[in-house]
Structures are given as C-alpha cells and as structure tokens.
Design brief:
Layout (H helix, E strand, L loop, with lengths): L14 H17 L8 E6 L13 E10 L5 E4 H4 L5 E4 L7 H6 L8 E6 L19 E11 L5 H7 L6 E2 L1 H14 L6 H15 L7 E2 H5 L6
Antiparallel strand pairs: 1-5, 2-3, 2-4, 2-6, 5-6, 7-8
Helix pairs in contact: 5-6
GO cellular component, one term: endoplasmic reticulum
Catalytic activity: [protein]-peptidylproline (omega=180) = [protein]-peptidylproline (omega=0)
Protein name: peptidylprolyl isomerase
C-alpha cells in the first residue's frame, strides 16, 4: 500500500504550529508502517521519434543490467550472462518482477530506463539466488523491440471476473456465452461445455484446471 498524506495548516495564532507538529507526529505513527519505498523510474534516454509505446500484453525485447542497491554489485547482465543475447518477456502478466510490469509501461523502442525497485515489488522477504532478502534492486533497461502479444491483456482482464490472475472454466464459459449472444449465435450448454473443454485441452499447459495470465497471453512457439 502506498499512502500520501498532506497536512494543511492555518497559522492564525501561536498555538497552531505546535498543534500541527502534534498531528504530524500522530500521523507518522499511524501511517508509517503502511508506507513502502516507492518504485522510482528514471528515463536515461528517449528517442526523438516514438511510433509506439509499450502496453500490458506486449512482448518486449530488452537488454538489462541488474544491481543490488546496498553495495552496487551486479547480479545479472544479458550482455554477460545470457551469451550476449537480449531477453524477450511479456509485459503485465507477472512473467517478470512486479516492478518491471509497473515501470516499463509507455516505453518507446530505443528508450533506456533506470528502475529502482523496492523489495515488495522485487523478491521481497525471501530473496532469490544471489539476491538477499529485503533487497532494493536497480535495473538499467534498454528496449530494443516491441511485438504484439498473441492475446491482449485487456481481454484477459474482461474474462477474469474475480481478479485472481487465472481463468476458470466457468469464467471462460460466461465470456464465450456473451460473445455468442453479441453476434446472435445460439449455442446450447452441451456445445458450450465441449468448446470450453477443447480450449482448456489446448491452453492449460500445466493441467491445473486454470488458464493463467501467462498461458493466455504468451506462447513460446510464437516467438
């Protein structure tokens, strides 16, 4: 949770400043535990011409370097640790860090950004590999290419009725029924069920009974 508190004080008499200080002290005690370090986005370079900006569901090709804020040490670089190859990922489906999903929207090809990501939007209390728990991370990210994702994030959100980032068979069935009705098609429940089963056979890659945001939006063989 991110909380911004502003206190406006009228200094009509001598007692007001002291009262304001007391309110600030009380507010800090109440709000302080809720406040987290914010995600910081710095644009290092932006091209003069920008024909398209990234949106959720887009596939992004990036080079990046990752550093620990505490000592400046590098923990990963696509230039050094990925055979020099950039990396594809899909924006907005938690395929990467939450800080990336939030910090790389509206980005242009050729743009370079520096993200300072707090632990809550990175690896949190657990850490991962070379990254200690509660680590703030810094990334320098260059965007090389944008491609349309095979499915849009907006469509997924429309289908995901309970906002749990996965689609149940019932949610898919409800969505399909609305689409058929929109186009004047008449399909009975048996046909609906058969269609839903066919969709899950093809899309539910891990066979857990749900279609995740990643399964819906992105397929490896479509790169």
């Amino acid at each position: 949770m991110y909380v911004l508190v502003e206190i406006h004080v009228r200094e009509d008499d001598g007692a007001r400043p002291a009262k304001a200080e007391r309110w600030q002290e009380l507010t800090a005690q109440i709000v302080g535990p809720l406040v987290q370090d914010p995600l910081h986005v710095e644009v290092l370079h932006k091209p003069f011409l920008c024909h398209r900006k990234t949106k959720w569901g887009d596939m992004m090709l990036v080079h990046y370097e990752g550093f620990l804020e505490r000592d400046g040490s590098m923990f990963h670089s696509t230039h050094k640790h990925n055979n020099g190859q950039p990396m594809w990922f899909t924006l907005g489906i938690r395929e990467a860090l939450k800080g990336w999903d939030r910090g790389l929207k509206d980005m242009c090809v050729g743009e370079k950004r520096k993200l300072t990501i707090p632990p809550a939007l990175a690896y949190g209390k657990e850490g991962k590999g070379k990254i200690p728990p509660e680590s703030t991370l810094i990334f320098n990210i260059d965007l090389l290419e944008i491609r349309n994702g095979p499915r849009s994030h907006e469509s997924f959100q429309e289908m995901d009725l309970n906002d749990d980032w996965k689609l149940s068979k019932q949610e898919v069935k409800i969505y399909l029924k609305k689409e058929f009705e929109k186009h004047g098609a008449v399909v009975n429940d048996t046909q609906h069920d058969a269609l839903v089963e066919d969709i899950f056979d093809k899309e539910d890659e891990d066979s857990d009974g749900f279609i995740s945001a990643r399964e819906f939006t992105y397929k490896h063989d479509e790169l």
